[in-house]
Every structure is written in C-alpha cells, then in structure tokens.
Design goal:
The chain has about 300 residues and is mainly α. The chain contains 16 helices and two strands.
C-alpha cells in the first residue's frame, strides 16, 4: 500500500505545473532584419570564396575577375579583413597604391598582428620612397616572424636610402643567415661595402651574387668596379668584356673595359674599347660622354705613342 502511494506522489510531482523539468519556451524566430543580415553575410562570403578560387601559387590567375568578386564581397561586408588584404595585393600589382594603402590601413587597424598586411604596406611605402614608415612596417614583420628573410632585405633597403649603412649591412646579413642564396641581399650588401670603400668585402658579396645570376650586367659592372679599385685589372676586364657581350649598346661598359685593359697594360685593347665607347656615345647624341671618351682615347694614345 505504501509503495502505491509513493508511485502516485512521484507521478504528481513530475506532472505539476511550474516544476524544474518543464520544457524551455522555443526561441523567438529571427526578425526580418536578422534574416537579411544573415543573407548579406552569406552573399559576401560566397563572393570572396569565388575570388579565392582564382588564387593559385600565391597569386591570382585572373586579377581583374578576382577584384570584382572582392569588391562585391566587401561592399556587402566591409569587416572581412582577409578579403581586404587580398584586394590590396591586387591593387598594388596594378600600381593603384593609394587605394591599396587605404585597405591595408583598415586591415592593420582591425588586426594589428596581421603580418602579411604589414609586409604589403611596407612594400608600398618603400615603392613610394616613404622609407621611415616602410622600415616600421618591416620591423613589425620581423618581430612577429623573424624567419621572413625578405622583410630584413627590404628594411635593409630602407636603411640604405636613410643613409644608415651599418643597419643596412646588419639586415642584409640577417636575410642571408636565413637564405644564403638570396640574390638581392648579396648584391645590396656588396653595394653598401662598395660605397664604403670596403672592396674585398664588396668583391666577396658580388661574386656570390654572380654565382646566382651570371647574366646580370648591373652585377658584373659593380664587381668590375671592386676589381678595378683592388688593382685586379685582368679580372675586371673579363667582367666588363662579358658585360659588353650581354649589352653591346652601352657606351659606359666599353669605357670601363678600356680602363681595365689600360690598367692591365693592354693599351691597344684599351684604345679599341674607348673608340667603341666614343662611337656609341656620339651615335646616341651624348655630347658629354663623347668628350669624355675622346679625352680617354687621347690619353691612351699618348701613353702608347709618346
């Protein structure tokens, strides 16, 4: 009998109104405004997804089409930071730097730790000659990710233009510690050494750069200058002769070849190279260089035929 009473009590307890086991009321349905907002965000995400389908190997295969999709996505949802970053990269590639900077500023404002946005903005500032702001952005990159060799390289270029050569050399050296085969770091550190009259160090860096790009006339000419300053005229002549083969229309290369040959004691070769430089300068209508090479020829002839 007592058992029946207990069962009846439990049944009444669970059926009583207002008890703890009552189901919660169903959530209120979304309002029209909330549904519209959800649709807007979904459409924005879809537009960005279509843009990213065009992204391969770190670039957009059809930048114009991708830009249209990104414009659509950001018009619908302006808070999409990554979409804004990718749009900025396309704009930078098209030379539309002001618009790109506006996008990058907004990305960094929303996400101060966005390393790629800092790198892109630093690159834009560097291209515009705003070296101080560029250096600050590259510094942010190196602090967030000290393995990005390119950030050290580009900050080094900023320091070169700010006449801070010690810091430039340090940055190029750090870039090379990460990637010893970095052509630009080798070349630019060599050029800083050359400007500081550190000719052996310049020769070492420029030779390493030459190993990486043996067809670079600018590099050959720079290494030839280091060799001339070190009195290694035969090697300088080889570099300049190679440069004239690659760019036979540059009078300055023949003038430097003449200087190297004269230093090596080959006066006939020096006169021939200077005459070639003279002919090219005159054909190009460069009166100043024409006069320089005429004087060079006269000096070499005086030494050969006193």
């Amino acid at each position: 009998m007592r058992r029946f009473a207990l069962i009846l009590f439990l049944a009444l307890t669970f059926a009583a109104p207002g008890c703890a086991g009552k189901d919660a009321p169903p959530p209120a349905p979304p309002t029209k405004a909330e549904l519209a907002d959800q649709d807007r965000r979904a459409d924005a995400a879809e537009a960005v997804a279509q843009a990213m389908q065009l992204f391969s190997d770190n670039e957009f295969v059809d930048p114009d089409a991708a830009l249209e999709y990104l414009d659509k996505g950001l018009a619908l949802d302006p808070e999409l930071a990554n979409a804004r970053y990718y749009r900025a990269t396309i704009l930078l590639g098209q030379g539309r730097t002001d618009r790109a900077l506006a996008d990058l500023d907004r990305v960094i404002q929303a996400r101060p730790d966005h390393v790629r946005a800092h790198f892109a903005r630093g690159t834009a500032y560097l291209a515009l000659g705003n070296y101080k702001d560029a250096a600050r952005d590259f510094t942010q990159v190196t602090e967030e990710d000290p393995t990005v060799a390119e950030a050290f390289l580009r900050r080094g270029l900023c320091y070169v233009n700010l006449n801070r050569s010690d810091e430039a050399v340090d940055d190029f050296t750090r870039a090379l510690a990460i990637n010893p085969a970095n052509l630009e770091a080798n070349y630019n550190r060599g050029m800083v050494h050359l400007a500081r009259q550190e000719y052996e160090a310049a020769l070492s860096d420029l030779t390493q750069a030459y190993v990486l790009d043996s067809g670079n006339v600018q590099l050959l000419s720079a290494r030839g200058q280091a060799l001339l300053k070190l009195g290694r005229f035969d090697r300088a002549a080889r570099d300049y002769r190679r440069a004239t083969q690659l760019e036979p229309g540059r009078s300055t290369l023949y003038g430097l070849l003449a200087e190297a040959l004269a230093g090596a004691g080959d006066m006939d070769g020096a006169i021939q190279a200077a005459e070639k430089a003279f002919a090219l300068a005159r054909a190009q209508g460069d009166g100043f260089l024409t006069g320089q090479y005429a004087e060079q020829i006269r000096q070499y002839r005086d030494k050969s035929y006193p």
